Amino acid sequence: MDRVTFALLNDFQRDFPLVPRPFRILGEHCGASEGEVLRILRDLHAAGAVSRVGAVVARGRLGASTLSALAVPPRSLDAVAAAISALPEVNHNYAREHHYNLWFVANAANRAALDELLARIEAMTGLRPLDLPLIAEYHIDLGFDLAGAGPDGIREASSARPRVLEADEHLLLHALQDGIEIVPEPFRALASRLGLQQSRVLAMLDRCMEDGIIRRFGVIVRHHELGFRENAMAVWDVPDALVDRCGSLAAGVHEVTLAYRRRRQLPDWPYNLFCMVHGKERRHAEDAIQRLIATARLEEFPHQLLFSTRRYKQCGARFRHVEAVAHG
Q: What angle do CA 91, 89, 215 make, to 5 degrees?
C-alpha cells in the first residue's frame, strides 16, 4: 500500500473536514491532488476496502438495534445465514466458533419493530434468537488503527447529549446512511438531494458532531479487506457491580476495537461484557486477549472466545425513516 493510500485510509477515519471541498483538504494533507484522492477512494470503495465515506451515528439516534445469535445446525448454516443476510434490517452477519454459531446485528425503527423482526426471524428459521441489546459502551465506533502500533491508555466513551433531533437533522442522518458521494463537492450534492442549502447541511453536521450525535465522520474501512482477517469476540460473565470498571480498563487496550456491556439472556447466555479484537494472524489476536484479561483484571470470571469463521454480510446499519420520532 502506497503512502497516499495509507494516509487516506488511516488518517481520515475521523476528523474528516466538513467543508465544501473536503477531498482537496485530504489531498493537501497527503501530498496529492484532489483528483487523485477522488480516484483512490473510488477505487477503494469499488474494491470493498472502504465501506463508505460518512457518519457513524450514536446509538439510539435513528432507531433500535440489538446483537443477536442463532444456534444453527452446522449442515444448515449457509442456508440460514443467506436468509438472515437477505433481511435489509440486518447489517452484520458472521459465523463464529460456538454453539451459537451465527451472529448478526438487527436494526429497526423502534423497539416494538425490533421485537417483531426477531419474532419473524424465529418463525422463519425455527430457531430462537438471542436478544442482547447494548447497555453501556466503553469504546465503540471510533475508527480502526491500521498501523496497529498505538499505546494502551484510557479511552473515554463518547455520548450524545440528550436532545430532540430537528426534522432536518433527522432527514440528514437518514440520507447519510450510505455515505456521501465521492465527488468534488459532496455536501452540495447532499444538500441538493434534501432540498437544503449547503451551508445549512454543514452547520447541522457541525452541531451533530459537537453534541456527539455523530460519533465520527470519515472514511469507514473494512478491516478484512485490509488484511486484518482474524476477528475474535471475547465475552465475560462479570458481576454487575464490577462490569463498568472492567469494561473501562478493557477499552484502554490498544488492540480492542470495541468494548461494551450487553444484557444477559439467561439461562442461554450469561455473558455481559463484550470485546472485539482484530489481528492479521490468530496468534496476534489471542495474545491481545491475554493482555486484555490481565489489564482489565478478568482472570477470575467465566469467559468464551468466539473467532469468526465466515463473514456473510457487513454494511452500514439501515433504519427506515419515521416521521416525528422523538429522541430524549
A: 55
Q: Which residues of 206-235 are buried (b: 16+ CB within 10 A; e: fewer)?
A: eebbebebbbbbbbbbbbbebebbbbbbbb
Instruction: Report helix, strand or coil for 221.
Output: strand
Cross-strand bridge partners of residue 68? 104, 131
Grade residue 163 by pLDDT with cuts at 50, 70 and 90.
confident
As a whole number of angstroms, the distance between CA 214 and CA 158 comes to 10
3-state secondary structure 253-267: CCCEEEEEEECCECC
DSSP readout, 55-72? EEEPTTSS-EEEEEEE--
Q: CA separation (Å) from 34 to 29, 179, 182, 262, 277?
A: 11, 19, 11, 43, 34
Count of Cβ atoms closer than 10 Å to residue 242 Cβ = 14
Cβ(108)–Cβ(114) under 8 Å?
yes
Q: How many CB atoms lie within 10 A of CB 327?
A: 15
pTM exceeding the 0.90 threshold for the entire prediction:
no
Q: What is the mean pLDDT of the chain?
A: 89
Mean per-residue pLDDT, 277-300: 92
Rounded Cα distance, 147 and 319, in Å: 32
| Rg from Cα positions in the chain | 20
